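Late entry, written up from scratch paper. The run itself happened at the end of the previous shift, but nothing got recorded in the book at the time, so transcribing now.
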Amino acid sequence: MAGRIPQHFIDELIARADIVELIGSRVPLKKSGKEFKACCPFHGEKTPSFHVVPDKQFYHCFGCGVHGTAISFLMEHDHLSFVEAIEDLASRVGLEVPREETPGARQPPPTDALFALLDKTAELYRRELKDSERAKDYFKARGLTGDTAAKFSLGYAPDSWDCVLQQFGASEAERLRLLQVGLVIERERKPGVTPGYYDRFRDRVMFPIRDARGRTIGFGGRVLDQGEPKYLNSPETDLFHKGRELYGLYEARQASRTLTRLLIVEGYMDVVRLHQAGITYAVATLGTATTPEHLSRVFRICNELIFCFDGDRAGRAAAWRALENSLSQVREGRQLRFLFLPDGHDPDSLVGAEGHEAFEARVAQAVPLSEYFISHLQSQVDMNTVDGRARFGELAKPLLERIPAGIYRELLGDEIAKVVRLDPQRLAAALKTGGPATSSGSERKPAPPPARKPAAVGRRNLVRQAVQLLVHYPGIADKVGDLAALKELDRPGISLIVQLVEELHDQPCDKTAVLLERWRDRPDLEHLAKLARLPLYIPDQAGATKELLGALEQLQEEAAVRRREELLSKHGRDGLSEAEKAELQALLRVPAARTAPVPRT
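Output as recorded:
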């Protein structure tokens, strides 16, 4: 939807969001006084330096310097855009994101037209399904109901080379859009001949793939009879990235806004049949192995992930690949488990044979990652010999190093030590896995923690003190009166104080995070954020108000003294205008301190 998101909505969103709950769903937080602490999710560390401050709705790390609001965390940790983070946070607190229509607003981006084209194509395939007894019989034979087909918007691509082209490819520009989203394939080009196209999907039952907002981004198609490939997916496009998307995630989130776990299976029909059986937390990768990007996305939503694979050799090989790709995402507070099905069954067939309760019982018995990790490696060597146990340690070493430093890695290292019959310290020394993990090349290099000292309150720090007070307690700006005299003081930071106070008069707020979000795209944001993460040893708002008014009084006194000296100097040099004489007489007659801002009531 076009239009700007109103600032008042962002303010309300930040005020209503629970940053502890949001971050705690991804990082194991421990209460420490009025704050919460954890090992930083943005760089490897063993000693917690990541702090979440609920009163301010703000987080910061004293190790690597990362900081921000709930919106910032979603952008940084979950790799969302600003708008996506707003939409994600709004869905969590049950708010609809409004848009402001402004004169001269930009036109909808080109991708809006592409989303619309894919949605119209999905609707076309749904209509074709209604007219195809053969396709409907296929779904019925697989045990699907009409309600399930409607929930997943299942469809049918007819046995035609140009069904989609006829509907949506009248002009060359339209055909190029179809090509851009992967709905058609370009025929081999020939010199002097206009490019030709044909439909990618033909005589297949269709599974629309939807993004987190329910928009169609691609398709999966399955042949009805014999043919290759059995499954055909949309190609990589501007909208569709196989290594990032999960089929059924939109439907899972629609089924429950408070997902606690996700079950990753391998096929479209597995997902659809599991949902129909009440296992509404099932999702599937799109013809690819599970990637760290998939996992990062999953752990934005919940803390428990279960991989479900066939029990045959191919299924176990896929499970081990999934484990290897998962290690960079493993940390305390997250659960990864593995469920292996009986030979000859996939989730679709098994849930049909056993039903909901029996399948859920199998899920409850899924093997934890640590257990599968050790048992799989044990199966590769002879654990009854010294050579075999040494080989086990060597196999474990590179895998253990992929796990971010923290409690989980330490505990898994202890379990490995038991298996190889070594003291954990000796094993760590032998494997040299004591340093911080570098599983992601993009992790920040931690900096030495800054000294956590209270801000000085001397005259030279009055400006900084005033700004810091306003950042920590934005609501106290309401107690500040007119700052006209202060505006004349030529001192770094004065304009920032005046701007903060004036804007907070116009739009009051009482949360640090709300204030920082308003300054997101301004040059002073980093300065304000730095002051927000420094401790302020003032216990309450009343004390902060007193400190702020005192600092402003001293600054305005300084401004008055400077102005008086300036006028006296000019009087002796060039003379003064009548207005300047009156101003000087007032300054000489009234003590400078009287020019301080009168507190608002």
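The chain has a mean pLDDT of 84.
(Scratch paper discarded after transcription.)
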